[in-house]
Amino acid sequence: MNPTDFRASETGRVIRARGGYHAFIPAPLPPKLSYDDELVLALSRADAALSELSGLGRHLPNPHLLIAPYVRREAVLSSRIEGTTTSLAELLLDEVAAGSTPRDPDDVQEVRNYVTALQYGVTRLRTLPLSLRLVRELHARLMKGVRGEHATPGEFRRSQNWIGAPGSTLETAVYVPPPVEHLMEVLGAWEQFLHERNRVPDLVQCALVHEQFETIHPFLDGNGRVGRLLITLFLIERGRLSQPLLYLSAYIEQHRREYYDSLQAVRTDGAWKGWLGFFLSGVEQTARDAVSQAGKLMDLRERWRRRLVGSPKAIELVDALLVNPYMTVARAQRLLKVSNPTARQVVSRLEKLKLLSEITGRAWGRLYLARPILRIIERIRGRDAED
């Protein structure tokens, strides 16, 4: 890490650590910000989009129908940023098709852990505020039984880490976070700001909290995933999200280079305006996309339910397909609490109406897919889902 790159003393300071390498110590939050017209407009637009999404979450007939697939999509995309290759279809298929062998079981487990950690965090907020304790609990669930498990799940690092190209060292890294002996001091300051209320706008505080967490990099592995989890959990805790429906990983993956450059520019040049603009634009775009997707899924649900009037079990199965668009007769039997022949009849009716398609071509162990639902969840561009 080149200390001359870090030119903004108000953002933090570069020190020479005990091992002789240079590392960065961030200054306590919040920084001094200038709310010019551009920032105020970006904040206003993001606030409006987030409020619309939160309002939608309050009025959905069954929020779980949207939360479940979106949580899984977020898990896939957040893990993909860190290098996993599991697709959303593979994760959904793995949940449904017992005995199937994923292309990469380790990748699938990492994504599953993200789902578990996020669901745990949303529930845990009822009894514990966002805090260093909750951050450790999230990390423990995120890293359980996966390739990063050696990185002491649920514990802050006890050795130095760094950020750089593959093969880089402490000397050649682009960025070196605070050394271990400074870690609890900067984490304590971060937690103190996390608990502050009414000092800066919620979305600005969320952006600052995320940036500082990534700068501190308190774990040996999993920092990026925990940092992205914190965005959703922060907005839920502050009452800005009624349901966990906002996830920035798709936006971050799409603009990955700009994301990392913006974070680094804060450290080197104090470029808070650039980072806030990036973050607020992501919130606005992601919230508007989520509202659009929710509308498409709910419209599709109503159209399908109208076609199935008089078949309550088939209507019930439509809701299950919104949670996971893959279906087997065994899954239908379990969900509907009916006999195997009855489950087959329900699945067959959905197939005859072209709401389900059989995708194995086998006479046994058949697997069905509601393709229009999967297209919406995956956000495949082009023609909207059909009836």
The largest β sheet comes out as:
3 strands, antiparallel
Determine the CATH superfamily of the largest domain: Fido-like domain
| Low-confidence spans | 380-387
Task: Going across the biggest sheet, name each strand in turn.
Answer: 3-5-4
Describe what you observe in this structure.
The chain has about 375 residues and is mostly helical. The chain folds into two domains: about 5-290, Fido-like domain (Fic-like fold), CATH 1.10.3290; about 310-380, Arc Repressor Mutant, subunit A. The protein has 15 helices and five strands. It has helices spanning about 35-60, 65-80, 90-95, 105-125, 130-140, 180-195, 200-215, 225-235, 250-255, 255-270, 270-305, 310-325, 330-335, 340-350, 370-380; strands at about 10-15, 20-25, 325, 355-360, 370. A three-stranded antiparallel β-sheet has the order 3-5-4. A two-stranded antiparallel sheet has the order 1-2. Helix 5 crosses helix 8. The longest helix has about 35 residues, at about 270-305. The chain starts with 11 loop residues before the first strand and ends in a 9-residue tail after the last helix.
